[in-house]
Amino acid sequence: MNDIYKKLNNKKLSNRAKVIAVIEEILQGKSLSSLLDPLLSPIDADSRGFVHELLLGTLRQWWALSRITESLVPRPISDPGVVAALHVGLYQLLYMHTAEHAAVHETVESLKELGKDYGTGLLNAVLRKVQKTPNKFAKKINKNHSLPNWLAKALKSDWPQYYDALGAALKQPAPVFLRVNERRCSIEQYGRLLDEHGIAHSLVALGYQDKQTIRLDQVQRITELPHFVDGWVSVQDAHAQLTAHLLEPYIDGHSTVLDMCCAPGGKTAHLLEKFHMKHLYAVDHDADRLSRVHDNLHRLGLVDERLSIIEADGTAWQADGLLDVIVLDAPCTATGVLRRHPDIALLRQSEDVAKTQRLQREILENLWPQLADGGVLLYVTCSILKVENESQLVDFLSCHDDAMALPFKLDLAHQIPQQVGYQCLPIEAGGGDGFYYALLKKSSRT
Ligand SMILES: C[S@@+](CC[C@H](N)C(=O)[O-])C[C@H]1O[C@@H](n2cnc3c(N)ncnc32)[C@H](O)[C@@H]1O
Fold first, then answer.
1. Helical axes 45-60 vs 15-27, angle rounded to 10°
2. Secondary structure letter of residue 325 according to DSSP
3. Which residues of the chain does CATH 3.30.70.1170 include?
4. Most CB atoms within 10 A, among 46, 91, 245, 254?
5. How remote is the CA of residue 261 from the centroid of ligand 1, in Å?
6. DSSP per residue over 355-388, as a string?
């Protein structure tokens, strides 16, 4: 078993030490989503909330807390475990109001547990300094948006009028939305079921026609939702649910549909719940993530002969024939889902933007010739950077005479029309994530 998973299952290791070990892994390139369950599962129910808050909160405030460590520690610290412990200690002192003794002493002890005694002197000194005048330090970082410099610069340039609202919103936890499997029951019926179980929730507008979704208004174990195991309901962000609704006019029983970059299958499942199609290809290049597509579709009862799940590279994959509808949920910087995946702000580098932009374009160029005349392609990202969204599509259209943007209308406060498509910004406290949507039609007669 990999070292980190051994640590997370080690009953002798304290919870703080486990959080530090997880952040150390993240700093070395592992994703939060691969570590969160292994961290939380062995922890007793009473401590889970504290551990969750300590981990997610530290990651959300990472760049704000870094301003303090940079000002107090003159040289860069080479050991990621010590860096993690500094941030975890500071987060407790400045945001969690943990008793000072626990915040300092227990964090220092945790670093010792991880065999990093050499970092304890520095950790102790920094935490004690901040502990003396916490308000001074809190004031220093309160207004900080906790964004890496490259992202702050890009957001300021793309969204000058929304920059502060975005900065404040991106460090908040995201709400949980449910997608009801329309083959099993309606949203209203499921809402009544939640009422019967005393689960607080709201029906929320999606900002497209009269479409709605359900937002949970209480902390809830998802697997314990009524009929979750029977496939009545899934977790899916509100703005992610727009995909299937936007395609309503274009999919019928004769349609051959491609869902490119489909894993873990949220949009694939929604398409299958909503439409009877001739065939759906669900393609992704990541075998592990594809196994989650299988699991999700099995739970929802959506596996049948109309569906092919294929492991392939979107820059090269060729369908057997022409496609009527293509969903390209393009790989992106995922800057629109920072609230759910705060590790992205630690992992992504400015160079990644150009790389993903090139990859998106390569996939687009491979898929476009495979779209039938009159067919539509829905381009989606969970990015809030214009280079991956509006600029990408404006440039694509300028190079393809047979492509035209189809108009549609989204109308929530932060669904913003672009030269091509719409940008949903994740600003509303109870609202959806940052997504971009553009709908293109192919017509050789233009
Ligand atoms: C935003 S996620 C997709 C989310 C998914 N559509 C859903 O709704 O659940 C992007 C996906 O792109 C896939 N991907 C990245 N590069 C790819 C490539 N070159 N070919 C195919 N899939 C790729 C990743 O494995 C990842 O699953």
1. 40
2. E
3. 175-236
4. 91
5. 3
6. HHHHHHHHHHHHHGGGEEEEEEEEEEES---GGG
CATH topology of domain 175-236: Alpha-Beta Plaits (3.30.70)
Among 234, 329, 388, 435, say which to mutate for ligand 1: greatest number of ligand atoms within 8 Å of CB: 329
Tell me: the pLDDT tens digits for 155-178?
999 999 999 999 999 999 999 999
| Token pair belonging to 102 | 């626990």
| Ligand 1 mean position, distance from CA 264 (Å) | 8
Given pLDDT bands bounded at 50, 70 and 90, which one contains residue 74? confident
Centre of ligand 1 to C-alpha 40, Å, is: 26
Please check whether the domain covering 147-172+251-445 is classified as CATH 3.40.50.150.
yes
Which ligand 1 atom sits nearest the alpha carbon of residue 268?
Answer: 8
Taking the CA of residue 382 as reference, the ligand 1 atom at the shortest distance is 1
Q: How far apart are CA 444 and CA 446, in angstroms?
A: 6
Residue nearest to atom 27 of ligand 1 (CA): 263
Domain with CATH 1.10.940.10 in the chain: 3-144
**Is residue 184 helix, strand or coil?**
coil
Per residue in 282-316, pLDDT tens? 999 999 999 999 999 999 999 988 999 999 999 99
- For ligand 1, residues with CB inside 6 Å are 261-267, 284-286, 289, 313-315, 329, 331, 382
What pLDDT does residue 143 have?
82
More confident site: 97 or 253: 253
* 263 CA from centroid of ligand 1 (Å): 6
Nearest CA to ligand 1 atom 6: 262
Q: ipTM of this predicted complex?
A: 0.99
Atom number, ligand 1, closest to the C-alpha of residue 240: 8
Q: Can you give the length of the chain in residues?
A: 446
Q: Active-site residues: which are they?
A: 382
Indicate the top mutation candidate among 257, 272, 286, 383 to test ligand 1's pocket, ranked by most ligand atoms within 8 A of CB: 286
Which atom, in ligand 1's list, is nearest to the CA of 313? Answer: 20
Please count the helices (runs of H) and the strands (runs of E) in the chain. 19, 13
At 114, phi and psi to the nearest 5? Answer: -85, 5
The token duo for 80 is: 């990621």
Burial class, 71, CB count within 10 angstroms (exposed 0-12 / middle 13-18 / buried 19+): exposed
Residue 174 identity (one-letter amino acid): A
CATH class (in words) of the domain with range 3-144: mainly alpha
